[in-house]
Amino acid sequence: MARIELRDATIRIKDGFGGTAKVDESSPGGGDTTLEIDTLASLPNATTRVPVGARFTIATVADTVFVVTAEKANKKFAVVVDATSGNFTITFNGQTTASIPYNDTAVNVQAALVALSNVVAGDVLVTLPVAGTYHIEIKGAYANLSTPTLTADDVDLAGGGDTVGVTTLRAGAVSWELTFTPALDAGDLPANNDNITLLPQQVEVKVGNGNLTYTETKNYEYELDRGNLDAVREGDEAPLEVSLEFVYEFVRTGTAEEITAVDAIKGIGGASGWFSASDDQCEPYCVDIEIEHNPPCGTAETERTTFPMFRRDSLEFDLSAATIATKGKCNVSEADIERA
């Protein structure tokens, strides 16, 4: 049995979310705290969304882990008018607006769309990032859908290129805008198609005092030859047994979500949308527990111990004393230990 003194330790409880994506900076709108992404792959349980609270890294931005604080997949269009006079119209899902002046305001263009029979206030958001270019985000009843259609037609435009055109900035449901923290440095803004690695959601618990013990059991079969000990063979594997008790100073998720350590271990409350840490999402819910111990003395090394796929057998907590105690097993035979 091994024992870990939890003073000067941080406990991280992680779910099984993960995957990859790519930066989609071909779609304008990215900034130092927002990022357009697409090409999502390897997400668990056939999900198509990046949940708030998930973390990610960008291949071209070293040593930084970002936390998703908001996400959306609303379809988004750009209507580009190249003219010096005249009017145009916009058709949304088969309904066409009244004529719109070539240089009208974003507010008026939005009002023209809301006047359609298939649009109500809140279904569209129109902005004008540069003169002649209207960004139209489809929201409300059409949120996160890839199906809305939008086209624009020349009524009597003149001057300039004498054109109006529509491009899709975000496809809806298959490409995403993430809002995240911390902010990117000006020199770290990623380029189109840079790789993104999506990481688990987690709760980080700063421990004031506590203790953790775990037992690794190794089974051997001893064979006899005429009554004498002879060959030794490995027997059945046994799950790693973990007992954890601690007093916490604070719990941090990196977002505004209120998730307690108990929520995370049980997959309820603020963690009800978490994914099991098991590759088999049909198995009972489990989490990865990581203990990072940072001794404040001398040259002692930081030690990180991970207990994968932990499932509780018992859970006791005293909210007034800020104490949690849990016992359970991991679907592995040994803990993973790193020192740095």
Structural summary, described in words:
With 340 residues, the chain is mainly beta. The chain has three domains: 2-14 and 202-339, Elongation Factor Tu (Ef-tu), domain 3 (Beta Barrel); 19-73 and 175-199, Thrombin, subunit H; 79-169, no CATH class. It has helices at residues 106-114, 261-266; strands at residues 2-5, 9-14, 19-23, 34-41, 55-58, 66-72, 76-82, 87-92, 95-96, 100-101, 124-130, 133-138, 150-154, 163-170, 176-181, 195-199, 202-215, 220-225, 228-234, 240-252, 287-293, 303-318, 323-330, 336-339. The strands form five sheets. The chain has a six-stranded antiparallel β-barrel. It has a six-stranded antiparallel beta barrel with strand order 3-4-15-6-5-16. The longest helix is centred in the N-terminal third of the chain and has 9 residues, at 106-114. The chain is elongated, with a radius of gyration of 27 Å.
What are the salient characteristics of this protein?
Thrombin, subunit H; elongated; 4% helix; 6-stranded antiparallel β-barrel; 340 residues; Elongation Factor Tu (Ef-tu), domain 3; 48% strand
